[in-house]
């Protein structure tokens, strides 16, 4: 589809330095920013202000915003916010936060941002980003309905999740869906009919919300007060009033896209809801926690174009803030950056941290860029990040290729295709068409027609998945006169969905077999059958091919994802198809009775499974903290089946994308029936998280708080996984477990860890109910290769319960920060490195060096895969800059900035330029494909040779062309500037640490400078630390991606 950027699977994702997100040139255009203030938000305030007692709840308790102390502190924060807001134009404030964040969002000019940076009451400013949603039977697949299953543990399905409140931060909700009715008919089927029997009591006392928000801006009627009931407690919207909504979208909390409705009904929708997909009876649906109450907070919207919709970070934080204030027990967040990755200290992560401190469990989707396109996102340790896995119910059909065999695949087809001629898409290509695009069945919807109607007419076309939306391929076949499509998978996993012609989606191996047979037999014939619900055709669970993988790019010592849950072909509530006129009538107050179900795949669908499970566990274990719930789900999880994937991960050279490794499945597939009695749990408190963030200097807590609580190393945060990213000879990890059973037990450790000698101390212990036990795990490298990830496990067993944790480690000779940052023209920085060797160390330095700036022009726009476009280099919408890199280069970086483009002066109308770095053979080495034109790619210690920096025009907002300036840095040992100095010890010891100092002075103002220090051991570089100095008083940049759900 045209609404997303197309990334090759081999594309290396450049990990941008946090400090690089800065703009150079003053503009008085207003843009959206999130401003965090110095005082702690309600959820983490520990007292210290005269007359204002602490408001942070005790572990295991929920925040009560109706408490007098909380109200008083909120009033105090409001006054402090007013003091800061009075220094800017108050008319441009868009959101205010107090519970999970202290601050506000506002449309600010560059000069206002720079003034706020100097305000002592301001702790942090970041650019608002437009994120994207990560787009029945699975409850049975998880065993919830089995004897002694979680539903039975709760007293039956009719009590599962009773009075738990699940908040859905997403695209809104379709209230008329039966998943959200609070009445049942005589057969126990949910109904909105007022004559039905009321099935729910009044909202629980903890609910503090206001019900349905019935009017928002120009949308005065699409949600009515009566849409809220005892099941659907609240419907709110935090979408901007001036959002460019599509003709079938709504400003209120009504869902215009379907994603939020699907997520909400998956997590906590009613049981016994009939469902039909494309005419196929799918049986009765049920949410994971069918008796939970639902509160919907609309953050995402469908835009008027393919590029201007999404989920603003400022809106997301408002939604999370309100959900906690309203009394939610669980929050689901199936949203994230499509470019993957992220940080631990952005506004969303700060909100999640404080939601956890408030006693609220957060489930978040890990992303849909697997197996190796982009890294997992939603990276904080204080919430659960969920991978998507398969289940064994499929909706499928059979394709018969005469002379070759029968092939079963995913399909919802209800129109059989009798024996007809088959043709490969490559054989059906128009003369002169790009053969790769033809194989992928590019069509008019993709901006490139590749199929020849003369060749295709009356035939079944064999297409390959990838690059374009799957549904665009069948549309291309239809437009060329084809009567059916066999879609060969590319390893990302099968998806059943409606198509323009009868379609069956077969796996990659079968696709190769079909293609080979048809290529050898041009007169081959085949047929496509009618779809039906099937069981046992696939081995499940496996990690879905599209599910994003780790390691965690924000900190390799924190395992992400945490675990996997069903996320493929999930049947749940959806939104009905509407015309623009119908949507307009609803916005004007017209009622509707239309409903729909949908079958969708994505980590967006996996996350609400965990949200529902958390509600079920919280119902039965009300004193458990969010960390205890996450631990119970993690340590009772089981391995998924091997998916056969064997691919490298660009963001971690020696990691692998195999679906059974921790980077893909986390701790494994959740096994919820074990989770209420795990034996031992790993708890983490607000103080633990504060120590963790203070140790990493994330600036999420004040200096006074960090001094009071101290610090811990990231590998020692008390998580249910054990990950050591830099074992320098040996390393010791510390954990503490709590016995949550009703009896004393003796646990014994069992360790599997190739390449390391592992010592667990104590190796056995007896623990009383409610008691805690601390243990250590000492890893000593034996045969493990350096800089290579090794995978194992640690299991504590009492003979009945097995408390299992993934154990992952990487031995290294040196651990040094990737970058340090400053805005001072003269200054110094000290930081610590770790050494895994004994002997001498030589430090090479280069820089500081100002950017080399190169101007160019692009005309028109592109569609298609970025690598293909750059290799072809045959369009005025592509510019390739040739770069020669000399031997000994320490680092090279190439950057674009919105401010350096024609559209950079127009908020909301910026050019969208992308950038790839390729070697001379055309292999993609790094890429940056954000919204807008704030892009950067870099390599450290690159090989000498010729490289290509490719700048691609993706969208010019209707303008015919744009001018841009490329900023480049190629830093080598001969580059000097700014009196740059690096001081480091000349010798190191195994397992030791050392302090490195950098200093500089006299840099001219108004520039961006880059320097580098490389650590050479035995003549070989073991690492590089970059120093970035921006003397241009920068303002934060936004970096966002486009929708990459499971649609390609």
Automatic annotation (TrEMBL):
One of its GO terms (biological process) is proteolysis. Residues 32-132 form the Inhibitor I9 domain. Residues 439-513 form the PA domain. PROSITE patterns: SUBTILASE, SUBTILASE_ASP, SUBTILASE_HIS, SUBTILASE_SER. Residues 716-808 form the Subtilisin-like protease fibronectin type-III domain. Gene3D superfamilies: 2.60.120.380, 2.60.40.2310, 3.50.30.30, Peptidase S8 propeptide/proteinase inhibitor I9, Peptidase S8/S53 domain. The keyword Protease applies. Residues 161-645 form the Peptidase S8/S53 domain. Coiled coil: none annotated. Residues 1-26 form the signal peptide. Pfam families: fn3_6 (PF17766), Inhibitor_I9 (PF05922), PA (PF02225), Peptidase_S8 (PF00082). GO terms for molecular function: serine-type endopeptidase activity. CDD domains: PA_subtilisin_like (cd02120). Keywords: Hydrolase, Protease, Secreted, Serine protease, Signal. The active site is at 170 (charge relay system), 259 (charge relay system), 604 (charge relay system). Belongs to the peptidase S8 family. This is PA domain-containing protein. The lineage of its organism: Bacteria, Pseudomonadati, Pseudomonadota, Betaproteobacteria, Burkholderiales.
């Amino acid at each position: 589809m045209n609404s997303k950027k197309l990334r090759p699977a081999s594309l290396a994702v450049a990990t941008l330095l946090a400090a690089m997100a800065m703009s150079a040139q003053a503009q008085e255009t207003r843009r959206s920013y999130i401003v965090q203030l110095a005082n702690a938000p309600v959820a983490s305030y520990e007292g210290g202000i005269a007359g204002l007692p602490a408001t942070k709840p005790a572990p295991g308790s929920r925040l009560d915003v109706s408490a007098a102390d909380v109200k008083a502190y909120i009033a105090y924060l409001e006054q402090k916010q007013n003091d800061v807001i009075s220094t800017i134009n108050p008319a441009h404030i868009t959101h205010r936060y107090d519970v999970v964040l202290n601050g506000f969002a506002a449309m600010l000019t560059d000069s206002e941002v720079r003034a706020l940076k100097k305000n002592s009451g301001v702790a942090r400013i970041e650019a608002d980003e437009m994120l994207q949603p990560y787009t029945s039977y699975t409850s049975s697949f998880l065993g919830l309905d089995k004897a002694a299953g979680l539903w039975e543990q709760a007293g039956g399905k009719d009590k599962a999740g009773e009075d738990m409140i699940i908040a859905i931060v997403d695209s809104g909700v379709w209230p008329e869906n039966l998943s959200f009715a609070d009445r049942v008919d005589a057969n126990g089927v949910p109904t909105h009919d007022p004559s039905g029997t009321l099935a729910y009591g009044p909202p629980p006392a903890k609910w503090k919300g206001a019900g349905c928000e019935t009017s928002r801006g120009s949308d005065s009627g699409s949600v009515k007060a009566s849409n809220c009931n005892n099941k659907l407690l609240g419907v709110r919207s935090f979408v901007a009033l001036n959002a460019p909504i599509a003709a079938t979208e709504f400003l209120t909390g009504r869902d215009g896209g379907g994603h939020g409705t699907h997520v909400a009904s998956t997590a906590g929708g009613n049981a016994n809801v009939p469902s039909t997909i494309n005419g196929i009876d799918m049986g009765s649906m049920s949410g994971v926690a069918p008796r939970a109450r639902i509160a919907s907070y609309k953050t995402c919207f469908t835009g008027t174009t393919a590029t201007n919709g999404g989920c603003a970070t400022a809106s997301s934080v408002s939604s999370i803030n309100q959900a906690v204030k309203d009394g939610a027990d669980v929050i689901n967040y199936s949203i994230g950056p499509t470019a993957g990755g992220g940080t631990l200290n952005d506004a969303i992560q700060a909100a999640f941290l404080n939601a956890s401190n408030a006693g609220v469990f957060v489930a978040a989707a890990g992303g849909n860029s697997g197996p190796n396109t982009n890294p997992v996102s939603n990276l904080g340790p204080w919430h659960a990040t969920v991978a998507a896995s398969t289940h064994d119910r499929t909706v499928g059909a059979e394709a018969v290729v005469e002379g070759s065999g029968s092939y079963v695949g995913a399909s919802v087809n209800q129109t059989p295709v009798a024996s007809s001629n088959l043709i490969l898409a490559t054989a059906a290509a128009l003369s002169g068409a790009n053969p790769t695009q033809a194989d992928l069945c590019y069509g008019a919807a993709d901006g490139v027609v590749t199929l020849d109607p003369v060749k295709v007419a009356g035939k079944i076309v064999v297409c390959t998945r990838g690059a374009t939306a799957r549904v665009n391929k069948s549309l291309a076949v239809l437009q060329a006169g084809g009567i059916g499509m066999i879609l060969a998978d590319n390893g990302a996993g099968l998806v059943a969905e409606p198509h323009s012609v009868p379609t069956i989606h077969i796996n990659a191996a079968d696709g190769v077999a079909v293609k080979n047979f048809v290529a050898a037999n041009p007169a081959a014939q085949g047929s496509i059958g009618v779809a039906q619900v099937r069981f046992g055709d696939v081995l499940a669970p496996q990690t879905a091919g599209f599910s994003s993988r780790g390691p965690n790019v924000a900190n390799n010592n924190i395992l992400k994802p945490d675990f996997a849950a069903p996320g493929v072909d999930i049947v749940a509530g959806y939104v009905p198809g509407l015309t623009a006129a119908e949507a307009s009538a609803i916005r004007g107050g017209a009622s509707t009775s239309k409903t729909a179900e949908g079958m969708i795949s994505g980590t967006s669908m996996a996350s609400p499974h965990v949200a529902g499970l958390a509600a079920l566990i919280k119902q039965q274990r009300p004193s458990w903290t969010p960390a205890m719930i996450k631990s119970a789900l993690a340590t009772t999880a089981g391995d998924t089946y091997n998916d056969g994937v064997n691919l490298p991960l660009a963001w971690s050279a020696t990691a692998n994308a195999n679906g059974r490794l921790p980077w893909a499945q986390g701790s494994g597939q959740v096994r919820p029936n074990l989770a209420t009695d795990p034996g031992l749990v790993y708890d983490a408190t607000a103080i633990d998280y504060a120590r963790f963030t203070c140790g990493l200097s994330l600036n999420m807590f004040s200096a006074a708080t960090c001094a009071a609580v101290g610090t811990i190393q990231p590998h020692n945060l008390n998580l249910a996984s054990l990950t050591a990213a830099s074992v320098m000879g040996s390393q010791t990890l510390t954990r503490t477990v709590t016995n949550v059973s009703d009896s004393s037990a003796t646990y014994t450790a069992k360790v599997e860890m190739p390449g390391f000698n592992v010592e667990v101390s104590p190796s056995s212990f007896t623990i009383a109910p409610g008691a805690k036990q601390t243990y250590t795990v000492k890893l000593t490298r034996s045969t493990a290769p350096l800089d290579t990830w090794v995978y194992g496990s640690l299991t504590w067993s009492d003979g009945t319960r097995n408390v299992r944790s993934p154990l992952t480690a990487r031995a290294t000779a040196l651990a040094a920060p990737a970058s340090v940052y400053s805005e001072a023209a003269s200054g110094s920085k000290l930081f610590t490195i770790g050494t895994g060797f004994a002997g001498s160390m030589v430090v090479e330095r280069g820089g500081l060096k100002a950017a080399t700036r190169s101007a160019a022009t692009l005309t028109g726009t592109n569609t298609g895969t970025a690598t293909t476009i750059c290799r072809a280099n045959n369009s005025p919408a592509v510019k390739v800059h040739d770069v020669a890199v000399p031997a000994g280069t320490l680092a090279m970086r190439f950057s674009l900035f919105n401010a350096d483009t024609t559209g950079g002066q127009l908020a909301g109308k910026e050019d969208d330029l992308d950038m790839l770095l390729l070697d001379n053979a055309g292999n993609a080495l790094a890429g940056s494909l954000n919204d807008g034109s704030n892009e950067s790619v870099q390599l450290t210690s690159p090989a000498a040779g010729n490289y290509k920096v490719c700048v691609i025009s993706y969208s010019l907002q209707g303008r015919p062309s744009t001018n841009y300036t490329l900023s480049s840095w190629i830093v080598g040992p001969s580059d000097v500037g700014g009196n740059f100095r690096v001081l480091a010890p000349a010798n190191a010891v195994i397992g030791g640490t050392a302090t490195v100092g950098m200093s500089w002075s006299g840099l001219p103002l108004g520039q961006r400078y880059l320097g580098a220090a490389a650590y050479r051991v035995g003549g070989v570089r073991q690492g590089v630390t970059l120093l970035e100095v921006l003397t241009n008083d920068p303002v934060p940049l936004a970096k966002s991606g486009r929708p990459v759900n499971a649609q390609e």
